[in-house]
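Cast an eye over this sequence plus tokens and walk me through the fold:

***
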Amino acid sequence: MGAYILRRLLLIIPTLVGIMVINFALVQFVPGGPVEQIIAEMQGQGDVFEGFAGGGNDGGADMASAGGDDKYLGARGLPAEFIADLERQFGLDKPPLERFFGMMWNYMRLDFGESYFRKISVVDLVLEKMPVSITLGLWSTIIAYLVSIPLGIRKAVHDGSRFDTWTSGLIIVAYAIPGFLFAILLMVLFAGGSYWQIFPLRGLTSENFDQLSAFGKAKDYLWHIALPVIASTISAFATLTLLTKNSFLDEIKKQYVMTARAKGLTASRVLYGHVFRNAMLIVIAGFPAVFIGVFFGGSLLIETIFSLDGLGRLGFEAAVARDYPVMFGTLFIFGLIGLVVGILSDLMYVLVDPRIDFEKREG
């Protein structure tokens, strides 16, 4: 197992470099950049996208800057020295290849730089936004497991029954409903939209959170996260429930189950004493991957609807503002986390069932 883990760890480096190369190359072909963003704001256009729209309607007249440089749309009237100084500040005066190798060298030393527009380090910015995303990801995953596993087991035991048919219909409908649409429905019904004002509309905690007792803080926290977590969990039930059901059905039909029944063991003893461990292998071992999927998968729309400032909004705002340190820094960090979690998922398989040996399977 040690050799397998070592190989997987060594594969992280080329995989991560490949991810960064592809994304860095794509960004070079995307119109606009931090300099364009600043120019758009100075021209009162709001953001770089409006600058493109405005520039295209003038037949290219706005493409010329004071120094005759047509590289930046909407830069007319700005001194060329000012534009050059902005490029130096952002490091855009260097060739792309040099910028990429410099960026990767800094990342290897865990130096992720500072946001162009917020004057805060990328690491501090991620740590600041992470509680919201961890809240949504962790609670959504835990609730999905707590509901889906018992439901999936019961569906497998009563396969083909009316209960199985009706619950399958319900979870498929839930899976088909977009999370953001369900979030709006919850807000309208329970957050003072049109009916009941039961839950707060925004934020992760109340303004007086620091003055509350320990019990009061826990209650306030759960009160705020109830609707966002429900909205982000609704579609997770289907996959996990059906996965649990199918896994148990596969095990129930195997020979060792028939043998256990022939020996006179009760149905519950067969189910939870023999079937459960084997059937739950794929479900339990996939927990890290499921959590990371929910964590990264994001919740930009849900965060926006409930006014939560998490990693989803951070990534979107960084992309719009062309905040390259935040864009590439978070991509590197999350890419590394995702690759490490892939290894942890394999280790979970071995932990749940020691009979699994990845080295022999590769051989």
